[in-house]
Amino acid sequence: MTDTSPDGFAAVARAAYAALPEAFRQLSADIVIRIADFASDEVLRGHGISSRYGLLGLYHGIDVTQKSGFDTIPHQDMVWLYREPILRFWQEGPDSLEKIIQHVLVHEIGHHFGLSDDDMHELEDEARRDEE
């Protein structure tokens, strides 16, 4: 059985990130990964989400397409993983917890590279077609 305590979840998240391709990890090495049980009410309201379980992860930062070498960056880029919503999603489906966390990480890190949600859904659809 998977340990879903905060420490156990963090261990699964570290393993999920470590299993991503090396080149991807190198390109995203400057991103801090944080875990919280839920997104704050302010974050949920800001994204128009009414359910505490409606957000699995969030990229917070300035994507690389918007950065300049002359910018002063007040905060480090972060990816937030929201433990309780991810655990509920995992309990409702067939995928492993590690696979779900990997998916959330790739999706949120994709925002760091300037990809929109639509861009990432298109890439995922293309990857599924290639697997068939």
From TrEMBL:
It comes from the Bacteria. Gene3D superfamilies: 3.30.2010.20. This is Zn-dependent protease. It comes from Parvularcula marina.
